[in-house]
Amino acid sequence: MFTLLSLWSRKFRFTVIITALLLGSTVMSLRQASLAQSQIAHLYGQTVDIRAQVVTDPNQTTSGNYSFLARATYVGAHNGAYQMRTPIRIITSKKGVLRLLPGQSFAASARIVSSKEGRVGGLVLIDADVKVLTQASRWARSLASIRRGLRDLSGEGDAGALIPGMVLGDTSKQTPEFKIAMKRSGLMHLVAVSGANFAIVSSFVLWCMQFLFTRIKLRLGATAIALICFIALVRPSPSVLRAAAMAAVILVAQGTHRARDSLPALGFAMGAVVIADPWQARDAGFALSVMATSGLLLFAPLVIEKLRGRMPLKLAQALAPPIAAIIFCSPVLVALSGYLSPVSIIANLLAAPAVGPITILGFIAALVSPFSPFISTILIWLIRYPAGFISAVANWAAQFPVLTLRSGSIGFLIVALFILILWLFKRYLRSISLVALVLILMLTWVQRWPAGDWQIANCDVGQGDSMAINLGNHRAIIIDVGPDPLIEDRCLKALGIKEIPLLILSHFHADHVRGLSGAIKKRKVSQIWVSTNAEPIMESARVSALMRGIEIVMPQRGSRVNIGEFTIDVMWPASGTHIFASMPGDGSAVNNSSIALRISSRDFTLFAAGDIEPPVQHELIRGMTSVDIYKVSHHGSKYQDANLMAALAPKVAIISVGVRNVYGHPAPQTVQALTRLGGQVYRTDTDGAISITANSHQLKVRTSKGRFNLFRLG
Prior knowledge:
Blueprint: H1 2-8, H2 13-36, E1 47-54, E2 59-60, E3 66-77, E4 80-92, E5 105-113, E6 123-126, E7 131-132, H3 138-153, H4 157-168, H5 176-184, H6 195-209, H7 216-234, H8 238-256, H9 262-276, H10 284-307, H11 313-337, E8 339-340, H12 344-368, H13 373-397, E9 403-405, H14 409-424, H15 429-446, E10 456-458, E11 467-472, E12 475-479, H16 485-494, E13 499-504, H17 510-513, H18 516-519, E14 524-529, H19 537-546, E15 551-553, E16 560-563, E17 566-572, H20 588-591, E18 596-600, E19 605-608, H21 614-620, E20 629-631, H22 642-648, E21 652-655, H23 668-676, E22 680-683, H24 684-687, E23 690-695, E24 698-703, E25 711-713
Parallel strand pairs: 4-6, 12-13, 13-14, 14-15, 19-20, 20-21, 21-22
Antiparallel strand pairs: 1-3, 1-5, 2-3, 3-4, 5-6, 5-7, 8-9, 9-25, 10-11, 10-23, 11-12, 16-17, 17-18, 18-19, 23-24
């Protein structure tokens, strides 16, 4: 209603904006207050008996646990029992929860803790098995059989994982490497249900309805019913409802041939989504959906007009949507990830012809899979070829460098300002673009990394560890491989490493080993050292599978190995059983099983200690001498032994840590202690990747984030 009023007279627009802001903030405040005052909030830290109803399908997280949203209906604590209807997030290690379907109720013993997720009242941690209280409805079982049928019949490999994601938003078969490739290539929007999926399915249904109905209103009505069924099939999560709302805008514009009237409809869809779920206003996905839809409605026609004089109309129409969407979304993308992929427009253009057939034929294959798997198999066989093509495009595009900008508000402002300048000075588009290209190339050349000889390099892998010791002739010792295979592979490529005579995995936490597949990609590995503690089992099993056929060694304190000019002394773990007090948080036993090394040569000495904590650090003080370089333990956490740092007295301390990580690493007191010892402290969150050139213990440090850290290719 407010949108319509704004069209009648300009004098209403200010009132509409103020009213919308007040309405949105009021709804958000009421929802937030209701969660803050819920009984769940008074039970943080307690173990309770809980009954809840499943809201979203359980799925496996990158940590190996299983997670889903639920609605708590009953909580029994030591001080009483409570009836409620509060949204919660479930985290459990029990694989049996995968059989739960939306709508089912279950009971379990659980621990309730606070959650940073705004839309839930608390985080519910379940260690025991859950007890199913109600069976799934026939409708839920039917929808589940459709989803399961498509997933089971789609086959293996990236192509088989892509099909369920594109058709039904089922990403359970996608590997971390494939997800990273899709994200880096700018094709991530294809592997989850988005407005494009709804637009394709709805357009297909609308086209089919012309053979049944002559009146456009009946066609739109039938298409709306199909859209509702599709929402139920892919699960009515907030992101799906948002995508459906945005797709409905484009559908109405196409069906009624009134594209100019689609902006009020877009405004209505935005308002409806935010009122129904206020947390969408704070969700980056919502912003991207709105910006992409706005780009298609506002900017794509202008791009077509600009391009049609220089190329065939069909090609201009194919290029316009990805160009418009990427330009409008780029400020938000930079604020989130800190980079843009220049090749993503080409990747989207190449992938675009394959999207329609996969979505439509995959949708049909899913619908008939419960009662005619043979037909589904034939249809999936047909679309595996275009799915394989999209996978190949993603892996190809992911190898190109991306334009990295300073993330957060600065990156957002840089891109937004550049787009505004292009918009205001359209007549000088070519000149402005040329000047910007020259400026970017100059800055990236000045800030290239490692830019010459290096002896030690610490990759910028986010919240994780990865270090390389140069052996010459494209060979290196690698200590840990970070959490991201693609980032690890890119760093080793930048360093020119093609062979790894010794790969050391200090311990099996994911932030040290999950990037293994990237490290060994097209590289020869001769030997691998691993911790004596195989926990977490999922990660150690994954390492064993990837390293099959390669010699695996579990080094212990006192071992000494010479590789090239380097002498490696193993300082930890010691043989026998050691029990230490646990630090707050998880994983102390695993951390204290880390491989700690002292590496020395004629040019430098280095101490790298994985994630060992103060009890083990204290064990190592005796006999420890000063070093040139200290790879600070456990990402610079506050749990450090001051006497060990004093004994090491490093000239250079390297802290490998992620930007704005949730752990608060590195701790200010750790950085201050290292600085007081006279060392220079370098951090990957602020300095980026770090390379060191050493000559007779004289060190020269270069970082990938220079003084003018606005643009960087990598």
